[in-house]
Write a structure and sequence with these properties.
The structure holds 2 protein chains of 2 kinds. Chain A is 0% helix and 57% strand. Chain A is globular, with a radius of gyration of 13 Å. Chain A has no helices and 11 strands. Helix content of chain B is 0%, strand content 52%. In chain B, strands 2, 4, 5, 6, 9, 10 and 11 form a 7-stranded mixed β-sheet that branches. In chain B, strands 1-3-8-7 form a 4-stranded antiparallel β-sheet, with no helix packed on it. By secondary structure, chain B is mostly beta strands. In chain B, strand 7 and strand 8 form a beta hairpin. The chains are: A mainly beta, B mainly beta. Chains A and B meet through strand 4, strand 5 and strand 10 of A and strand 9 and strand 10 of B.
Chain lengths: 111, 116
């Protein structure tokens, strides 16, 4: 099955700085990579996703890059704000298109 | 947008009782729904994949007789935790895959189960 590894587990940045979270996956057939943001006690919210036919996708302050050869993808948040503080999860699909999640990154944006 | 509801949001029960959790897709059809379990400060662990009109596919280590899943319609899946014990206490979250966007999963708000 799919194996997804996520780093770092915790990340603290100053407000206005950039944050980068990285994930690797094992199944070379995977072709869809979503990122979710989860605030404490709440549901995961899809913030951005990328399909394997593109190498980068951007939505305002959030971007995702994908390197299929190396089997890794990254989340980039620029001009971070305190409300960006949350746990972020990457994911990749398995053979039945179920999602395998990374272990999560606790992002703290310091004012 | 795609909305998934989950009920109840919180339940406290005595050991040995059964608890049913409902997951509904409100504005789209979902042939496939997923059930996850999340412990504090941990990731989401897939328990089972629920397919409308057929048996659920359980992940390794998940007891199908303990966690009964029924997916009776394109908008409703239920998870029943049978004979619950304190170790079953957890945050249970469902997600539904939108037929129109095959890969995208939308999550319900979760159910916090506490077994005394």
């Amino acid at each position: 099955g799919e194996n997804v590894e996520q780093h770092p587990s915790t990340l603290s940045v100053q407000e206005g700085d950039s944050a980068v979270i990285k994930c690797t996956y094992s199944d070379s057939a995977s072709n869809y990579f979503p990122w979710y943001k989860q605030e404490l006690g709440k549901r995961p919210q899809l913030i951005i996703d990328i399909r394997s036919n593109v190498g980068e996708k951007k939505d305002q302050r959030i971007a995702v890059t994908l390197n299929k050869t190396a089997k890794h993808f990254s989340l980039h948040i620029t001009e971070t704000q305190p409300e960006d503080s949350a746990v972020y999860f990457c994911a990749a699909p398995g053979s039945l298109r179920q999602l395998t999640f990374g272990s999560g990154t606790q992002l703290t944006v310091l004012p | 947008g795609a909305v998934v509801s989950q009920h109840p949001s919180r339940v406290i029960c005595k050991s040995g009782t059964s608890v049913k959790i409902e997951c509904r897709s409100l504005d789209f059809q979902a042939t496939t729904m997923f059930w996850y379990r999340q412990f504090p400060k941990q990731s989401l662990m897939l328990m089972a994949t629920s397919n409308e009109g057929s048996k659920a596919t359980y992940e390794q280590g998940v007891e199908k007789d303990k966690f009964l899943i029924n997916h009776a319609s394109l908008t409703l899946s239920t998870l029943t935790v049978t004979s619950a014990h304190p170790e079953d206490s957890s945050f249970y979250i469902c997600s539904a895959r939108d037929l129109r966007r095959q890969e995208t999963q939308y999550f319900g708000p979760g159910t916090r189960l506490l077994v005394l």
